[in-house]
């Protein structure tokens, strides 16, 4: 396709001109001129773009700086798949009402007012609500979108240009223009006053055809492109050939009341420094407030600015800096001009240094210069008022229970495993699976290692040789020689060891080959060992628990725990554990399996009650036990009887917050923790009524309720 542009506009009131793409070619103004360019072929007529339009043909290898990608998924868009086009792979999500989850919405700023935006898109649709096209918005609750969409029974051929309007979060489908057999459209969206009209290009007639209109009562600050996957999640490909945008020049704004300006990027806060008005990253105790006064008898939109409270005027220093002048100084006449996207340009027309205010990189100073360096600023209202708080110290008081202050605990964000529980090994019993989280497997946090030429295969197994019925999965390690094994990455950056401290290793193992297993904490490159020891597996091929104490020879926060075979053959492993000996010691129950630093902080809060184990963690899931489901139900409500007894016999379960619960901290540990804190235990029990969005029916079985 051949597209043209006229010369770029110079600076004009109310608009910062965007640069043209360097490689834009000559526009075919009609069939005649197209034939003159390419006489060997009959060109399909293309629409004439608005004379002053900003055009992006997507010819560059990088996306232009004018674009803002909302909810970006970088892997789902490309400028290279079809060179000279923007290709989107539609994703799940929508702008519909409260959803606001649409991904890869490509937007450019426009000033408030009338505009025209044109695009050509190829986007074959075949699943309900797959769609792609143009969108104009203030935000995701105030928008109009129009695109080629598969709408099913809503249109005779199921394919239509759907025009939607959502205002204040209330959605309505304005129109469906049937487009039987269409796999792509050239679309135009135009706002004139409060009316937004959509058209499609009829290549045969060489003219625009109406595709509906709607009334818009909100300000549009951005326009752009979207592609939405089907209702069932099926994606499709939308290829945008170009975008052309022509918008009315932005209006000048004279703010009322006290306001401040928010700067670009990280330096957002307006302050007064030795160099004048500047933007800084650190929030000040109080922002610099300004007031604007319209220039009497001057041009529309012209204003002067002064500091709120002091009345000191904003002036231009000799080197072009904006600063506060003396009380009797002549204020600069400025313009605050809408440049789109809800942002403003601060201008001082006629200034010798240039009329556009930019932010100097070295110190954040607001300095006048060329339009290309203009800062895009945001206006924010400030308010202040004096209030009086009267305290009657002799007034009547109310007695309050000491038990109203306590700890509201929930196993969320790894608060138990990886948090309060001192266990350093993640997925120690190889029980993780996709029921807990779609990314989990039995080898999550584990990797196979081979040392001294040995090789190994590692398989997570559940069969009759398992440790017990509640701990159904274990690791089978087949080693070709000593030195092959597995390694655990722990939580976060890895295992924390402190030089000189002791750590207890426990591992359940069985093998028909007697051997010494090496257990060691090393760095990720296996170049430094921080602690090492051996456990002797007796070769009776029965499950036994083996233990050894390690002493750290160095300090690290990124260790890895390796377990290495001592002989060729098969060894089965389960419940691989590493815990610091320096855990919290309760005043009543003695040493615990709780992290010392965290438990001490909780104790220092002097809570009067301890609520556990949580809310949604407790009351979302099925009501069977793990054993009743023969080890298949991994989405059960929290059942306290499954969380007591030897840890290797506690059933695994999913966690409502998207991970696995080992129940290493169970009801017994919570009760003893409360006792050591001197707090009243407040256990949370499921009553058989699911919450937190669960659709599992209420439990009404008397036997299970009694259990």
Automatic annotation (TrEMBL):
SUPFAM superfamilies registered for this protein in UniProt: (Trans)glycosidases, Concanavalin A-like lectins/glucanases, Galactose-binding domain-like
UniProt superkingdom: Bacteria
Matching Pfam families: ASD1_dom, CBM_4_9, GH43_C2
Keywords (A to Z) from UniProt: Hydrolase, Signal
Domain called CBM-cenC: residue spans: 423-565
Secretion signal span: 1-36
Residues annotated as domain Beta-xylosidase C-terminal Concanavalin A-like: 56-244
Recorded GO MF terms: alpha-L-arabinofuranosidase activity
Family matches, as InterPro entries: ASD1_cat, CenC_carb-bd, ConA-like_dom_sf, Galactose-bd-like_sf, GH, GH43_C2, Glycosyl_Hydrolase_51
Residue intervals of the Alpha-L-arabinofuranosidase 1 catalytic domain: 602-698
Name this polypeptide is given: Carbohydrate binding domain-containing protein
């Amino acid at each position: 396709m051949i597209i043209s542009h006229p010369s770029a506009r110079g600076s004009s009131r109310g608009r910062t001109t965007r640069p043209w793409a360097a490689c834009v070619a000559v526009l075919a103004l009609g069939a005649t001129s197209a034939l003159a360019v390419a006489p060997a072929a009959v060109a399909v007529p293309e629409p004439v773009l608005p004379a002053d339009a900003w055009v992006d043909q997507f010819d560059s290898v990088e996306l232009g700086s004018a674009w803002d990608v909302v909810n970006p998924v970088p892997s789902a868009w490309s400028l290279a798949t079809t060179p000279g086009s923007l290709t989107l792979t539609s994703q799940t999500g929508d702008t519909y009402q409260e959803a606001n989850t649409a991904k890869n919405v490509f937007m450019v700023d426009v000033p408030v007012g009338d505009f025209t935006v044109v695009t050509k898109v190829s986007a074959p649709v075949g699943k309900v609500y797959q769609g792609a096209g143009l969108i104009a918005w203030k935000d995701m609750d105030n928008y109009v979108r129009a695109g080629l969409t598969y709408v099913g029974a809503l249109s005779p051929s199921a394919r239509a240009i759907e025009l939607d309007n959502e205002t204040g979060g209330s959605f309505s489908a304005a129109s469906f223009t049937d487009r039987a057999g269409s796999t792509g459209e050239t679309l135009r969206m135009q706002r004139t006053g409060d009316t937004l009209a959509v058209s499609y290009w009829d290549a045969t007639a060489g003219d625009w055809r109406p595709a509906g209109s709607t009334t818009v009562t909100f300000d549009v600050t951005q326009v752009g492109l979207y592609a939405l996957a089907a209702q069932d999640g099926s994606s499709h490909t939308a290829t945008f050939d170009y975008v052309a945008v022509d918008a009315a020049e932005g209006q000048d704004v004279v703010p009322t009341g006290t306001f401040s300006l928010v700067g670009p990027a990280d330096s957002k806060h307006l302050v007064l420094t030795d160099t004048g008005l500047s933007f800084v990253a650190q929030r000040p105790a109080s922002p610099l407030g300004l007031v604007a006064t319209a220039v009497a008898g001057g041009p529309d939109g012209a204003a002067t600015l002064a500091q709120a409270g002091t009345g000191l005027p904003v002036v231009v220093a000799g080197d072009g800096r904006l600063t506060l002048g003396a009380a009797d100084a002549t204020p600069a006449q400025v313009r605050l001009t809408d440049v789109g996207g809800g942002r403003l340009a601060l201008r001082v027309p006629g200034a010798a240094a240039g009329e556009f205010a930019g932010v100097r990189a070295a110190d954040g100073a607001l300095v006048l210069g060329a339009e290309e360096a203009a800062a895009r600023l945001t206006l924010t209202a400030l308010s202040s008022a004096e209030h009086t708080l009267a305290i009657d110290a002799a007034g009547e008081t109310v007695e309050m229970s000491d038990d109203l202050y306590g700890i509201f605990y929930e196993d969320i964000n790894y608060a138990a495993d990886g948090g309060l529980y001192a266990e350093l090994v993640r997925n120690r019993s190889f029980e993780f699976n996709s029921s807990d989280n779609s990314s989990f497997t039995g080898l999550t946090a584990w990797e196979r290692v081979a040392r001294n030429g040995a090789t190994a295969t590692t398989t997570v197994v559940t069969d009759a040789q398992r440790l017990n019925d509640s701990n159904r999965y274990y690791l089978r390690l087949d080693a070709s020689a000593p030195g092959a094994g597995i390694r655990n990455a722990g939580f976060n950056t890895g295992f924390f060891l402190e030089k000189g401290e002791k750590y207890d290793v426990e591992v359940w193992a069985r093998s028909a080959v007697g051997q010494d297993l090496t257990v060691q904490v090393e760095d990720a490159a296996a170049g430094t060992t921080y602690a090492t020891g051996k456990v002797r597996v007796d070769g009776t091929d029965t499950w036994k628990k083996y233990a050894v104490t390690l002493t750290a020879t160095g300090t690290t926060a990124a260790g890895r725990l390796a377990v290495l075979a001592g002989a060729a053959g098969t060894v089965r492993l389960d419940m691989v554990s590493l815990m610091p000996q320096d855990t919290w010691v309760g005043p009543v129950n003695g040493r615990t399996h709780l992290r010392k630093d965290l438990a001490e902080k909780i104790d220092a809060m002097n809570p009067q009650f301890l609520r556990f184990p949580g809310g949604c963690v407790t009351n979302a899931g099925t009501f069977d036990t793990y054993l009743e489901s023969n080890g298949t139900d991994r989405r059960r409500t929290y059942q306290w009887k499954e969380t007591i007894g030897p840890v290797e016999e506690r059933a695994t379960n999913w966690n409502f917050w998207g991970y696995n619960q080992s129940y290493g901290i169970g009801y017994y540990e919570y009760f003893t923790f409360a006792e050591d804190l001197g707090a009243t235990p407040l256990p949370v029990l499921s009553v058989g009524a699911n919450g937190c969005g669960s659709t599992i029916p209420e439990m009404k079985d008397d036997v299970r309720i009694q259990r």
